[in-house]
Amino acid sequence: MSTDQPDPRSQPRGTLQRRLFLKRAALGIGATGLAIAVPGALMGEATNDEAEAVSAAADDLDLEGLPPMVAYVRDAAAGDVVILAGTSEVEVRDLQLARRLIAGMRAASA
Amino acid sequence: MSSHREAPAISTDPVADNTDVYAFVSPDRPDTVTLIANFIPLEEPAGGPNFFRFGDDVLYEIHIDNDGDGHEDVTFDFRFTTRVMNPATFLYNVGPISSLTDPNWNVRQTYEVGVTRDNGRGRKPRTVAGRNLATPPVNIGPRSTPDYEALAKAAIHSLPDGVRVFAGQRDEGFFVDLGSIFDLGTLRPVQMLHLIPSANAMGEDGAGGYNVHSIAIQVPISMITADGKVPTDVMAAGSTIGVWATASRQRVTLRTKERGADSVGPWVQVSRLGNPLINEVVIPLGKKDDWNGAHPSRDSQFASHYAAPELAALLPVLYPGVFPRLGALTESGASRDDLVAILLTGIPGGLVDGFQNFTGTTQADMLRLNVAIPPTGTPSPLGLIGGDAAGFPNGRRVFDDVVAIELRAVAGAVYPLIDSTFEPDAAAGGLADGTSNDRPYLTVFPYLGTPHQGYEHTHH
Question: What is the model's pTM?
Answer without folding.
Answer: 0.91
